[in-house]
Design brief:
The protein is α/β, with parallel strands linked by helices and 240 residues long. It is built from nine helices and ten strands. The longest helix has 16 residues.
Length: 240
C-alpha cells in the first residue's frame, strides 16, 4: 500500500528526513515512535503530499506522491488523516462535519451520506452527539468525531499524527479504543504515537525514527523487549 524509498525532506538548511525507506503492506498497522523533533510527523505528512519532498520516492495506494502530475486531491480521497488537533469545522454540527466531504467530493446522495454518518457515529460511540456543535464536546469526543469524519470518505489507508497528544489523560482511552477496533477490522494504518502500551498491543510493526532516519524496525515483541540498536534501547528506557 505504501512504498517509500530514500525519502528526504528539508526545512530551509535543516535536513529533517535523511533517507527513509520502508514498505507498508495492506491491512498492516505500523506505529512510528521516537523523540520529539525526530521527523515522525513530517514523514507522515509526506505520505499524502502535505509536505513537499526534496528527494526519493513515495508511492501511496498507486499514487506517486513526489510527481508534479499526481492529483493529490484524488490521492487524499483514499487516505484519511487524523491530526493532533481535531480540525473540526466549528460552524458545523457533528453531522454536517461528517456529510460534507462525501457529498461534495464523492458526490454521495444526501440520504446515503446521512445513513453513513449515523453508522460511523455509532461506531465511535457518539450517536447521541449527532446535532452537537464541536465546541460543546470534550477533546476525546472531538477526536472521535474527527476519526469518523475521516472514515466517511471510505479510505483505504488511515494516517494518525499523535491523535491523543492533545487530550487529557482520562480521555485517551476512548480514542485508542476506536483505533483498536479499526485495527481489528483490517484497516491499513500508520500511527505516530507516544502511547507505547498501545503500540505494543495493536501494531504489527514498530518503526523507531530518530535524527531523520529509521534507526530500527521490527515486531512489537522485538522492539520493546530486545531492541538491537543502543539508541532504541536508550529511548525506550526513558519512556517505558
Amino acid at each position: 500500500m505504501i512504498h517509500v524509498e530514500n525519502l528526504q525532506k528539508n526545512f530551509g538548511e535543516v535536513q529533517v528526513l535523511r533517507g527513509i525507506s520502508c514498505n507498508i503492506m495492506p491491512q498492516e498497522v505500523v506505529c512510528i515512535i521516537g523523540p520529539s523533533g525526530s521527523g515522525k510527523s513530517t514523514f507522515l505528512r509526506c505520505l499524502n503530499g502535505l509536505e513537499s519532498i526534496e528527494g526519493g520516492r513515495v508511492e501511496v495506494n498507486g499514487f506517486a506522491v513526489q510527481e508534479t502530475k499526481t492529483n493529490l486531491n484524488k490521492l487524499r480521497e483514499s487516505v484519511g488523516m487524523v491530526f493532533q488537533r481535531f480540525n473540526l469545522f466549528p460552524h458545523m454540527t457533528v453531522l454536517e462535519n461528517l456529510i460534507m466531504a462525501p457529498m461534495d467530493v464523492r458526490k454521495l446522495p444526501r440520504k446515503q451520506a446521512l445513513e453513513q454518518a449515523k453508522a460511523l457515529l455509532a461506531k465511535v460511540g457518539l450517536s447521541d452527539k449527532i446535532d452537537a456543535w464541536p465546541n460543546s464536546l470534550s477533546g476525546g469526543q472531538q477526536q472521535r468525531v474527527a476519526i469518523a469524519r475521516a472514515l466517511a470518505m471510505t479510505p483505504k489507508i488511515m494516517l494518525f499524527d499523535e491523535p491523543t497528544s492533545a487530550l487529557d489523560p482520562e480521555l485517551v482511552g476512548e480514542v485508542l479504543a476506536v483505533m483498536k477496533t479499526l485495527a481489528q477490522e483490517g484497516m491499513t494504518m500508520v500511527i505516530v504515537t507516544h502511547e507505547m502500551a498501545f503500540a505494543r498491543e495493536v501494531s504489527d510493526r514498530v518503526i523507531f525514527i530518530d535524527q531523520g532516519i529509521i534507526q530500527e524496525a521490527g515486531s512489537p515483541e522485538h522492539m520493546f523487549s530486545t531492541p538491537h540498536n543502543p539508541r532504541t534501547a536508550e529511548f525506550l528506557s526513558k519512556v517505558l
